[in-house]
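Regression report. Comparing outputs from two consecutive submissions.

Submission 1:
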Amino acid sequence: MSLVLPADAGDLAEVTASETSLKRFLHGLPGVDQVGLEKRAATLATRSIKKDSKRWALDLAIRMVDLTTLEGADTPGKVRSLCAKARRPDPRDPDVPSVAAVCVYPDLVATAVEALQGTGIHVASVATAFPSGRSSLDIKLTDTRDAVAAGADEIDMVIDRGAFLSGRYGQVLEEIVAVKEACGDAHLKVILETGELATYDNVRRASWLALAGGGDFIKTSTGKVSPASTLPTTLVMLEAVRDFAAITGDIRGVKSAGGIRTAKDAIRYLVLVHEIAGADWLHPDRYRFGASSLLNDLLMQWHKQATGHYWTADRVTMD
């Protein structure tokens, strides 16, 4: 079972070298105090930021957005429109920054790549039988390679939650390792689908499993399952990347996706990132929001901070 870990990872590489040692390691992680965790997340959610910092936070949140469309009715025209919004979220104000990425299904990657050429905005593609993750490994790898061949430089894969919940950790790990290899130079985001994992202990175990398998980011949700992202689950995942970096020296990211709709919500998550992982993670290379409707509220609040007035309704594009 080959792991994508730094050479100095030491004991971590050893304990994940077999199914038995992997299970012993994952179940040996400190248990999550549910009451304490939820209380801490709730306390951090009440933190406010100074008015002169709010514009900076809104600007950063916009730059962290993976602008997403993952519907069966998606068309090339819809993707081109989304890419135009990603480039210039407010066409009348060039000071508004671009988003981090546009996330689409594999068959629409080429359309997004063409529309975003030369912008520096990443093209992300879901893969591996999204959102269920229920297919053969060969199909998952083909899905990934097709998206990369079409130009995706980020892949959002889903783990097999059935295998994970059945305790088949080695199978899940091997799939992550194989998909990471199929990504080539593309970054890999591993979707845990935390709403199906039942416990915070499972979220912690799945986070470490994804990091050990080579995930560049660990991601909360597909957005297709409720509950999706929550502050407590993101807190657990931020602890995992923080502790993984402390052990290995390798910095990975977190993506919160699903149910984050307002600027107020986004700022709460940024406070969480700062307080749990640290200021080094306040960067689009280390933290992302997976969103479709969030951007509009961020733009309205950004405009309010810049001018003292809210947008009128005609300035908001409804994608």
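Submission 2:
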Amino acid sequence: MLIALQKRKENIAEYILYLWQVEDILRAMQFSPEAIYTTLVDKIEGADEQQKENIFNWYMQIVELLRKEGKEEKGHIEHTLHLVADMHNLHLQLMKLPVGEHYRTTYQPLASALPRLRQLLDDSSLGDINDTELCFRALYATLLYKIKGGADSVVRDTIDVISPVIAELAAIYHKVERGELDLFEE
């Protein structure tokens, strides 16, 4: 919870990927309250009992959302998918507004890689996802691949092409969110 709050303030993309990782960790623990508490909460140094209770409740709220949304086995909670959709809407605005000129330049190498990326991540259960969600799914798959010990050229290529775009999109998202950037200002 503490990490998630910090990531939400600083980098929306890292926040989304962190929550996806939390979902998978909770699934691996089979949503067991005891396992969640002993593994994720009890070992937090410097947290008092009230803080630990709040953190535990936060994990259990995610468990409840996963169950309520029927995503016990796979998938991501609607909260993160809405954030990805918001980022995609911002992407669409940046692709046509003057303020997005630098973003479009950053995006150009990724645009030509998207068909290959879509083919690599071909999963009929994903349906017709937008390009921004595709990038997040590729980054998350890359993260999982690296955790499992893989670090081949496909992984590096994916990160090299997607990361700058998502990083810039996340930075702009936060500027817009904090009122530091008006997309429609000339």
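Expected: both submissions complete independently.
Actual: both completed, but the second showed a warning that disappeared on reload.
Relevant detail on submission 2: The chain has two domains: 2-68, 78-177.
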